[in-house]
């Protein structure tokens, strides 16, 4: 079982090297603004995942499996690879979809996943940029161990190689899908492909800074290998353009120690979500906000009630189930935007704040 993880890790390393070399030879790293802290965080996180977290999870599954259900060890070793492979991949990916979505909608898990979205440049290593605890709690890594324990080692190895190709490919600056959109016959084919697997354009939209660019949706496109879960659960946004601004709005740029070791290490910056005692507080008030807008311009209205820049979104909704509302001004002038977040005509004030009991 552990031999299986070693082979897998070497193959994943090979995929990373191929994408890394492609990025280098394509000149993608020439003008990089990545800091030493960025590299350290990504390479360090990858190394710890491969050398410690995954093997330890495999050992834990093996030990627990032999203790609790010893008869199930290698139970499916005679089952067809062609049955085990899709079962492994579909269960693995739906687990990861759910976990990834939880990491965007739950405050504690968001803090573990936040380092991934701090990256202001995409790249072959970015997919491994998360807090260490994020990986320890990741259900699909445990599922990988369980499938291997049950005798599906080959399906796990082949499945994870395919999955890593898609995931590293969707984070890489190589953007393998971009030239295909320009060729009519391949463009039609890509309409089918992007509805099955996650393409770079689909995933870049998830990393875009804000919905205001008309391309990005940081609160959508949660899929990892397959885009089918986003379509099933209504979180898919299909685009063939790539956002120019990546990362987080108002990122206080904490160092890699707090980003990787949270909650064991906290940021010393009180403005950081990773600092001790940091709380997002309600910033709603009853009176609507009168704001000057320009015809045709897009604005992002805060729906979560925690923005420090009311009535507009400042990214504080990350780690909640709320998403900002994008709207376009239809005329020049002053409009009244809801600030109590109770309106039924969002983003505009409908006087809900005046109703009794509100
Ligand atoms: S800060 Fe984005 S919705 Fe409130």
Characteristics:
358 residues; 45% helix
Bound molecules: FE2/S2 (inorganic) cluster
Number of strands: 4
Beginning-to-end CA distance, first to last residue: 59 Å
SSE-based structural type? mainly alpha
Show unreliable segments. Answer: none
Element-by-element helix/strand order = HHHHHHHHHHHHEEEE
Mean pLDDT: 92
What is the number of helical segments per DSSP (H or I, 4+ residues)? 12
Oligomer state equals single chain
What characteristic shape results from the CA principal axes?
globular
Radius of gyration: 22 Å
Spatial sequence of strands, sheet with the most strands: 1-4
The major beta sheet can be summarized as: 2 strands, antiparallel
Determine the fraction of residues in helical runs and give it as a percent range: 40-55%
Tell me the fraction of residues in β-strands, as a range: 5-15%
Structure description:
By secondary structure, the protein is mainly α. It contains twelve helices and four strands; from the N terminus they run ααααααααααααββββ. The chain has helices at 2-25, 36-68, 81-105, 107-118, 132-136, 139-149, 153-171, 178-181, 184-193, 200-207, 228-232, 256-261; strands at 289-293, 298-301, 325-328, 333-337. α1 runs parallel beside α7 (153-171). The longest helix has 33 residues, at 36-68. The protein binds FE2/S2 (inorganic) cluster. FE2/S2 (inorganic) cluster binds at residues 302-304, 306-307, 313-317, 322, 324.
């Amino acid at each position: 079982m552990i031999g299986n993880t070693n082979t897998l890790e070497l193959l994943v390393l090979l995929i990373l090297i191929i994408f890394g070399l492609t990025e280098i030879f394509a000149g993608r790293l020439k003008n990089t603004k990545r800091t030493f802290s960025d590299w350290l965080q990504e390479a360090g996180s990858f190394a710890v995942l491969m050398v410690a977290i995954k093997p330890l999870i495999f050992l834990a599954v093996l030990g627990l499996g032999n203790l609790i259900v010893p008869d199930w060890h290698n139970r499916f070793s005679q089952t067809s690879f062609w049955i085990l492979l899709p079962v492994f991949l579909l269960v693995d990916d739906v687990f990861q979809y759910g976990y990834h979505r939880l990491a965007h909608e739950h405050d504690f898990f968001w803090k573990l996943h936040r380092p991934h979205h701090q990256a202001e440049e995409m790249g072959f290593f970015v997919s491994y940029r998360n807090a260490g605890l994020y990986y320890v709690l990741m259900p699909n890594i445990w599922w990988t161990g369980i499938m291997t324990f049950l005798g599906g080692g080959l399906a796990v190895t082949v499945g994870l190689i395919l999955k890593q190709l898609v995931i590293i490919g969707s984070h890489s600056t190589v953007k393998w899908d971009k030239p295909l959109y320009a060729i009519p016959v391949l463009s039609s084919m890509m309409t089918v492909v992007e509805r099955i697997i996650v393409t770079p354009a689909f995933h870049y939209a998830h990393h875009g800074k804000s919905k205001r660019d008309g391309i990005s949706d940081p609160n959508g496109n949660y899929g990892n290998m397959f885009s089918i879960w986003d379509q099933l659960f209504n979180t898919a946004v299909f685009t063939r353009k790539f956002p120019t601004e990546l990362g987080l709005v108002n990122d206080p740029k904490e160092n890699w120690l707090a980003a990787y070791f949270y909650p064991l290490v906290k940021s010393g910056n009180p403005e950081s979500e990773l600092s001790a005692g940091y709380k997002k507080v309600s910033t709603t008030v009853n009176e609507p906000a009168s704001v000057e807008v320009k015809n045709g311009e897009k604005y992002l209205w805060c729906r979560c009630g925690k923005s420090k820049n009311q009535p507009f979104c400042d990214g504080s909704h990350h780690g909640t189930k709320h998403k900002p509302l994008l709207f376009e001004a239809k005329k020049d002038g002053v409009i009244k935007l809801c600030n109590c977040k109770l309106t039924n005509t969002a983003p505009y004030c409908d006087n809900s704040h005046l109703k009794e009991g509100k």
